[in-house]
Design goal:
With 130 residues, the chain is mostly beta strands. It is built from two helices and eight strands. 10% of the residues lie in helices and 41% in strands. This is MA2C1 mannosidase. It comes from Odontophorus gujanensis (marbled wood quail). InterPro entries: Gal_mutarotase_sf_dom, GH38_C.
Length: 130
């Protein structure tokens, strides 16, 4: 590739090669395009979306989802995480999915504002409306 790996989109190409999309036959009914999440910066990768584990205080909250993101370009960056899911509450959490002491994230119309340092991993616990 020419230029830097960031400009060449190497990380996205690697994901496309190693985790290709699989086509599944479906009905011919027209369905609108839909995406559960989007990010405003290509430097941040949304690596994982999963139901919150039944650990500790979260075991009675099956409506909780964890998203894990990381900064992949070695830069300091601010990005917006947008979701079409009905988020009631968002908070930073540790890798055991326990909420951080001062980890409440405001959910604004444009999403949740996240600040990353180089190669930082951030986990967010999203509590969804029923």
């Amino acid at each position: 590739f020419a230029g830097s790996f960031q400009d060449a989109g190497v990380i996205q190409c690697a994901y496309n090669l190693n985790l290709p999309l699989h086509a599944v036959p479906a009905s011919s009914a027209q369905c609108p395009a839909w995406s559960a999440f989007s990010l405003s910066s290509p430097a941040v990768v949304l690596e994982t979306v999963k139901q919150a584990s039944p650990l500790g205080k979260r075991e009675d909250r099956p409506e909780a989802v964890v998203v894990r993101l990381y900064e992949a370009h070695g830069s300091t960056v601010v990005t917006w995480l947008q979701t079409s899911l009905p988020v009631k509450e968002a908070m930073l959490c540790d890798l055991l999915e326990q909420p951080a002491a001062k980890g409440h994230l405001p959910v604004e119309q444009q999403g949740m504002k996240l600040s990353f340092t180089p190669f930082q991993v951030i986990s967010i616990l999203l509590v969804l409306r029923q």
